[in-house]
Amino acid sequence: MTQQITNILLVGVGGQGILLASEILSEAAMLAGFDVKKSEIHGMSQRGGSVVSHVRYGQEVFSPIIPEGEGDILFGFELMETCRALPLIRSGGTVVANDLKISPPSVLMGQETYPAGLVERIRALFPDFLLVDGQKIAHDAGNVRAANTVLLGAVSRRLAIAEGFWMQALEKMVPPKALVVNKQAFLIGREL
Amino acid sequence: MKEILSGNEAIARGAFEAGCLVACGYPGTPSTEILENTLSYKEIDSSWAPNEKVALEVAIGASFGGGRALCTMKHVGVNVAADPLFTLAYTGVRGGLVLVVADDPEMHSSQNEQDSRNYARFAKVPMLEPADSQECKEFTRLAFQLSEQYDTPVMLRSSTRISHGKSIVRLGERVSDLPLPQLEKNPSKLVMLPGNARVRHPLVERRLSDLSEAGSSMAVNRLEMRDSSIGIITSGVCYQYVREVMPHASTLKLGLVHPLPQALIRAFAAQVDKLYVVEELDPFIETQVKALGIDVIGKEIISLCGELTPGRLRSAFGLPQPVEIPAEQLPGRPPNMCPGCPHRGVFFALNQLKAYVTGDIGCYTLGFMPPLSAMDTCVCMGASIGMATGVTKVVSAEERKKVVAVIGDSTFLHTGINGLMDMVYNNSPATVIILDNSITAMTGRQDNPASGFTLMDEPANAVQIPLLCKALGVKNIRVINPLDLAETRRVIAEEMERPEPSVIITNKPCVLIKREDVFEKGPVYAVDAERCTGCRACLKIGCPAIEWRPAGDGSRKGKAHIDPQLCTGCDVCRQLCTFDAIGSGK
User: In B292-382, which residue ranges form alpha helices assigned H by DSSP?
Assistant: First the structure.
């Protein structure tokens, strides 16, 4: 039963647009005919804290949170948060992350340093780790704010949801004036 | 028509479909979004009350007037609303009344993890507990129906994972055959004088026993026989974890968690070899099952603390766990006050003045975090002022001067006013700082009676907090600009010295307020690297826009840098820089 469920964990920092990305993902999965559940914590975490969103889809989904160690895909918006979430991902799972570092308060205040070698650590555990310079690609595509959509495109290629459903989901969730740029960013990401 | 809805969105939808006319509550994570969604249904009058007690009283009035009413709050809100709730159980309702309470096991955004199911039992009120968004909608509809059928308020219990979880919901239509509300006098039922209440109490008891009996054949209490060697009684999100982790176990899924369907529980227990209860927090179901004389395992294997997860449930039952990648030691990422937050200067001053700060519930509770580290107590909504009075009653005259209460505008209006009344009445020498940022910020910027707007975004009277304090009898009221560090520190120091009640009110709005005319972003600041000596003075306010950049030579040297994307131009860091290295570049 559990084997038929796809588990995607989205992680990053409050204010990065993680919830919107997980909404688009859930919508696309529903349009593709799957049962979908999604869970995240609001509240305190929105004040710049760590944010974790769980999306699960398949024939019938029970738990709204991904069982520990059963994540199939880790979708990281920030490197340290990606690293923090690795224990939730199964061995042989997939990691797609944005090449972005956001310093936590202790680093901003000079009490700690931002950990070095995170990319290497992730790659050692997940050899096909895909690191995406979302900001740069989105900037080249016309809008740096579409970085999340580039990443979402990259994740989408690793999921059994047809492109048309993704486009429908984008049309529903993205404001009309940003739609063209986001669709373009998504398709670039989908080739990564 | 199906949509992906959060539990909170689905509860709002359920209220709409049930023909609800009035929805009232006080913001509190994880319940807040319910009223922000009833708002989208024009048929429902949605409003924020100053606190949960008033919210429930408004709902009671709507019900007594003959309309269906929804009232929403977080678990600790029921403590505030308990007084009307317990007697409402005696009066019963006219229009259906549903009280939604959202619990927060694991305390993602709360000060305790009290289990609201105990309130249902204590107040003798039926309680439904949904397990996904579809059930949130259906159970809300059912709750209204049961409320009228059994003449009782009905509680609907959610939790963080249900309220903030999303799943697919099939939408329905709004009922249209409800009677029009009109005044109808029935004082022997609605005036709870002892003589009337004595008549009502036996009816309350009979109602519960009727519901317990009816519960055994209600569709929301679902007996699912699979492998009969293990039977699990469960409800809410725990049902989902049980199905996930032990797909072959038989389950009795309770939708009505109070009163329990005793006959159904006995029937289930008789059909399985080994019986368990899987529930978060208190042994609420377990204790009652044991009282029926049924052998059952529950809290022997499942923690009384925190929320359940699939992994924790596996551990409880000794099931194999997937091999986990070991967790790395990484710097934490706690929440922080926003760049430009007007609270920062006040807590910096309190830290410098070595005040003993009795705190309260809101964004400013983050004043506890380093480097501001200026909060010494935080118990519940509105408690800061009473606690300050109490502390000054026992410590020496010299220490009394150190005692300062901090409270936000919304929290002050919630339950802080009475504390201030007491402070004046009983002449406490403590100082109160009302951090008036014109919004209920922590729960996501909700309006309140001092913000000038209603939940439905209509212009409203804005309570004048200084005049209110004056009316309460406070003689020393100072309004300050918290972004002016010297003034803030001077005024707080002066009022701490004063041996009588005093109130300081800050007057800068939250940086997140959506209305464009409220918060004005100033020119962005930058650090002049030539002048910056790397003294780290600007780091003492913990602004997320200021970053320490090490020299990179292994020494402790470095310079400060301001992120132009995050800076709001509040000017606070400039005032801390004695080398004139920070400026707006104007």
Answer: 310-316, 343-352
Superfamily of domain A2-190: Pyruvate-ferredoxin oxidoreductase, PFOR, domain III (3.40.920.10)
For residues B47 and B38, give the distance between their C-alpha atoms in angstroms, rounded to a whole number. 10
Cα–Cα distance, B388 to B376 (Å, whole number)? 11
Q: Cβ of B344: how many Cβ atoms within 10 Å?
A: 26
Name the pTM for this structure: 0.97
User: Could you tell me the pLDDT band of residue B310, with boundaries at 50, 70 and 90?
Assistant: very high
- Fill in the DSSP letter of residue A86: G
Given 3.40.50.620, 3.90.340.10, 3.40.50.970, 3.90.780.10, which CATH number is that of B2-214? Answer: 3.40.50.970
According to DSSP, the β-strands at A89-98 and A50-58 are unpaired
Q: Do B334 and A49 touch (CB under 8 A)?
A: yes
Condensed to tens digits (0 to 9), the pLDDT of residues B422-471 reads 999 999 999 999 999 999 999 989 999 999 999 999 999 999 999 999 99
* Assigned token pair, A135: 């900001």
Neighbours of A109 (CB within 10 A): 20
Fold of B526-583: Alpha-Beta Plaits (3.30.70)
- What does the block give as tokens for A36? 């979908």
Q: Which residues of B touch A122 (CB under 8 A)?
A: none
Distances in whole angstroms, Cα of residue A128 to Cα of each of A95, A124, B234, B325, B463: 8, 9, 41, 16, 59
Interface pTM, i.e. ipTM: 0.95
Q: Give the model's confidence band at A2: pLDDT under 50 very low, under 70 low, under 90 confident, else very high.
A: very low
Nearest CA to A11 out of A64, A79, A65 is that of: A79
A43/B442 touch (CB, cutoff 8 Å), yes or no: yes
Give the separation between CA B431 and CA B402, rounded to whole angstroms: 9
Give yes or no for residue B275 having a pLDDT over 60. Answer: yes
Domains B222-316 and B343-506 are alike in CATH topology: yes
Contact B335 A14 (CB under 8 A): yes
Q: From CA B148, how far away is CA B154, in angstroms rounded?
A: 9
Whether B579 has its CB under 8 Å from any CB of chain A: the answer is no
